[in-house]
Design a protein that fits this description.
heterotrimer; A alpha/beta (251); B mainly alpha (263); C mainly alpha (311); A: 251 residues; alpha/beta; Rossmann fold; six-stranded mixed sheet; four-stranded antiparallel sheet; C: 311 residues; mainly alpha; Arp2/3 complex 21 kDa subunit ARPC3; 2 strands
Chain lengths: 251, 263, 311
């Protein structure tokens, strides 16, 4: 399906993109499959942005570029620093990437070890690591889970701990892949409240349009490796033609 | 579905639970080595070692029969040792016919057989107790402290974390196989042995690919959090005075057991 | 769900201390080689891969299929792991599996863990990889059938080694343990072979790149072909010989002093080496004295550190 709907005339919030700038990002997988065709976007401090689009639109591929796990052509700039091999460690500490499946994110036997992994590998001294673990668990309201075993947690608990594993790195940008997938209504509600409270810039990929409507003032629509719309959530959700064209539904 | 059956740890607040995992691991190994060093028929030493086991069991607050009940796992292996009953020359105690051959149990053979069983039975109970009073992640830390190479302890930590996830997947695969292999009433389901083996092999292959892809995603998650080829760990354990005293005491006990075994 | 202890997981108490230590030494030397080779050859990506693969082998061992008469075939995995991961990584993976089975489930002992790792992890990987590597580049059918033979032989090798260790420890009679173990494992090995071949052909179909040129599977050198081939040859030659004429093997072992060394505890080896100018009693007194001093010293040292930790 050819994408005809390039960049709408929605109003994009004014800013210089002080947290994240992506310019003309292109990427093809080794098997030749092209996943990104010139993606550009900007995020400002305090932005909470939803990233929506059908499966295969390139959302996850884009996310893997934002902390340099994948490297395509184009520019990625985080907090004014251009992503390169030299500042990869610094960028990875600034960009907290939370994967969709918490069983992939939580790879250590205990909650403490998982939340401590990031700060430890940033080279922080032990006392700082411990303080950050406590603060991160406090932020997701899971302080009492510090010494639990990861495999004993419920899916909802795992998701919150997964967020804590990157909060402990004090990121300036939080990137979440499908945070509400597989959650029961109560766990989903807890998660929404948590995301609302977190005072941090975030870019959240999701299929959960109710979540988009409730939580994110701004939405970016991707399809076939391109940004096809970027603007106020309210207005995008009203544009039924746009939504239908990209396999989305009004909540 | 959770497989808590895999977790052998029992939450209690006993003295043993609070002991440093290094001490517990070390004492367990020393105890097992000591059992292996005892000569056949060192009854007094066996009894003393058993009393030590009971005392430790009492300390654990798990109940005196806890390790006894679980020690049955090693029993089937006793079959392997049964041949020593007949093979060691000594005074005949008992003869009988079995499968056309005449078997004679000798006193020396019986002595050896019983000694092997006692050694094994005492050792396995101490190992059971070790994992009942020590959380497995702490056990891994103990191995790190005891200089087991980091690559091995890391693999073991991953194994422990993902054995629950992957056994979940195995049981989903097995359930899917069962729900598809319906049989008409009175008929056995499935084809021949080769067909069944092929199905099992396909499951193993499928599980392999899923695990392989999972390891890719985990690697990305590790990279995202600063991993660059070297793993750092915090060891949250510190030896307290009582940990040293307990080690000293246990070594003393084992020494006495060894002396008793040679009187 | 519980494991039924497989006959290859030796519990503590069944091997003499000398045999246990000898096996530990062989295992530790092989593992340190494996660690330095994997550190050198494999990227940082291999750490999570080996970890998840260890969990995979552990979980795959639970997949079973009914054979006949209530018995079931299942996987040990050493050969499969070596073929897909390369031999060194497979050895580390299998070591972790054996260690967790012993530590967490008491499936196999701790003092005898060196022997269990050797039997189930090291030898199986060497045979599995060596034979498979020998037919690299051949047609798929050839590779798969060789993988099957290698898997079967790897189980037989493990069983043969286990029998020898038990016999040298004075736990079993050679004439019974060898035919019994090899007989049982000839069947178990068949299950291993079938599952290994089916799993490999599934992988070859879905992800041929994992087994193709440039994969870990294709990096082993000629040394593996030779050593895997030699171990396989020993198994093939020794098994029928030992089954047919255990007394002959026993005579050889006695003549060479294997049995004495294996069955006696170290303290009873010492009297054979008493110095001529010391009486037997004097020597043993000295030895006892030295051991006593070491033990008392250790106890004092520990108490001292305890007091220091308090302060």
């Amino acid at each position: 399906m050819p994408v005809t709907h390039i960049k709408s005339n929605f109003q994009i919030p004014e800013c210089e993109g002080d947290v994240l700038v992506v310019k003309d990002l292109c990427f093809s997988y080794p098997d030749g499959h092209a996943a990104l065709h010139g993606v550009s976007l900007k995020l400002c401090d305090g932005d909470k942005v939803a990233l929506v689009g059908p499966n295969g639109a390139g959302k996850s591929t884009l996310m893997l570029h934002l902390n340099g796990i994948l490297g395509g052509h184009g520019e990625v700039e985080v907090a004014g620093q251009r992503l390169s091999r030299e500042n990869l460690p610094a960028i990875r500490a600034m960009v907290g990437l939370v994967f969709q499946n918490p069983d992939d994110q939580l790879f250590s036997p205990t909650v403490f070890e998982d939340v401590a992994f990031g700060p430890l590998h940033m080279g922080l001294p032990e006392a700082d690591v411990r303080a950050r673990v406590d603060a991160a668990l406090e932020a997701v309201r899971m302080s009492s889970y510090r010494d639990r075993l990861s495999h004993h947690l419920s899916v909802g608990e795992k998701k919150r701990i997964a967020i804590a594993t990157v909060l402990s790195m004090n990121p300036s940008l939080l990137i979440l892949d499908e945070p509400s997938a597989g959650l029961d209504p109560r766990a989903r509600r807890t998660l929404i409240n948590l995301l609302r409270e977190l005072p941090i810039t975030m870019l959240v990929s999701t299929h959960d349009m109710k979540l988009v409507q409730e939580l994110f003032p701004r939405t970016i629509v991707m399809d076939e490796g391109r940004v096809v719309a970027d603007g106020l959530t309210q207005e995008i959700l009203e544009d039924e033609k746009l939504l239908t064209a990209h396999g989305l539904e009004k909540p | 579905m959770h497989f808590d059956a895999f977790d052998r740890y029992h939450e209690k607040a006993s003295f043993l639970h609070r002991l440093d995992p290094r001490v517990k691991t070390l004492v367990t190994v020393v105890y097992i080595v000591s059992n292996a060093l005892l000569p056949d028929g060192a009854w007094l030493a066996f009894v003393f070692a058993w009393l030590f086991l009971i005392a430790v069991n009492l300390l654990s607050q798990l109940g005196i029969g806890y390790t006894f009940k679980r020690s049955i796992v090693a029993l089937p292996f006793a079959l392997i040792a049964i041949t020593v009953l007949f093979s060691i020359p000594g005074t005949p105690l008992f003869s009988f016919q079995l499968f056309m051959s005449n078997l004679t149990i000798t006193d020396a053979g019986l002595l050896r057989f019983v000694s092997i069983l006692i050694r094994s039975w005492l050792s396995v109970q101490m190992a059971i107790l070790l994992v009942a009073v020590t959380r497995f992640p702490d056990l891994i830390h103990a191995l790190e402290h005891l200089k087991v190479p980091a690559i091995l302890t890391t693999i073991i930590a991953f194994l422990y974390r993902y054995l629950f996830v992957l056994t979940d997947e195995v049981f989903r695969l097995i359930r899917a196989r069962e729900s598809r292999s319906a049989a008409a009433a009175g008929n056995r389901s499935g084809g021949g042995v080769f067909w069944r083996a092929k199905v099992a092999g396909n499951m193993a292959g499928q599980l392999f690919l899923r695990s392989y892809e999972r390891s890719d995603r985990i690697y990305n998650a590790m990279l995202s959090r600063g991993y660059a080829g070297h793993l750092y760990t915090l060891n949250p354990h510190e030896m307290k005075p009582r940990d040293y005293y307990v080690t000293a005491f246990a070594i003393g006990v084992v020494f006495i057991v060894q002396i008793l075994g040679r009187l | 769900m519980h494991f039924s202890p497989a006959p290859l997981h030796i519990p503590d108490g069944f091997l003499s201390i000398v045999i246990s230590i000898v096996c530990w030494v062989i295992t530790i030397i092989t593992l340190s080689l494996a660690i330095s080779k994997t550190n050198k050859a494999l990227g940082e990506k291999q750490v999570p891969l080996m970890g998840v693969m260890a969990a995979f082998i552990f979980a795959a061992q639970m997949i079973n299929f009914p054979v006949a008469g209530g018995t079931s075939g299942h996987l040990l995995g050493g050969a499969l792991a070596a073929i897909v991961l390369g031999p060194w990584a497979a050895m580390l993976v299998m070591t972790a599996v054996v260690a967790v089975q012993a530590l967490l489930f008491q499936d196999g002992g701790l003092l005898v863990m060196g022997a269990n790792i050797l039997n189930m992890g090291l030898v199986t990987a060497a045979i599995g990889y060596g034979l498979y590597r020998a037919v690299a580049g051949q047609s798929k059918a050839v590779r798969l059938s060789v993988a099957g033979v290698a898997a079967w032989l790897s189980v037989m090798a493990g069983a043969l080694l286990t029998s020898l260790q038990l016999w040298l420890s004075g736990t079993s009679q050679l004439g019974i343990v060898i035919p019994a173990m090899l007989g049982v494992h000839a069947l178990i090995g068949l299950g291993e072979a079938l599952i290994t071949v089916a799993a490999l052909s599934f992988i070859l179909q879905s992800r041929p790149d994992l087994l193709g040129e440039g994969s870990e599977s294709a990096k082993g050198g000629r040394g593996w072909i030779v050593s895997g081939g030699i171990i396989a040859l020993v198994v093939v030659l020794l098994s029928p010989l030992a089954s047919a004429d255990p007394d002959g093997l026993e005579r050889v072992a006695i003549n060479m002093g294997f049995i004495d060394a294996g069955q006696s505890a170290p303290y009873s080896i010492i009297p054979d080496y008493t110095l001529p100018f010391l009486g037997e009693t004097a020597a043993s007194t000295i030895v006892a004295g030295v051991i006593g001093i070491i033990v008392v010293g250790a106890v004092v040292l520990l108490i001292g550190r305890g007091m220091k930790a308090k302060a």
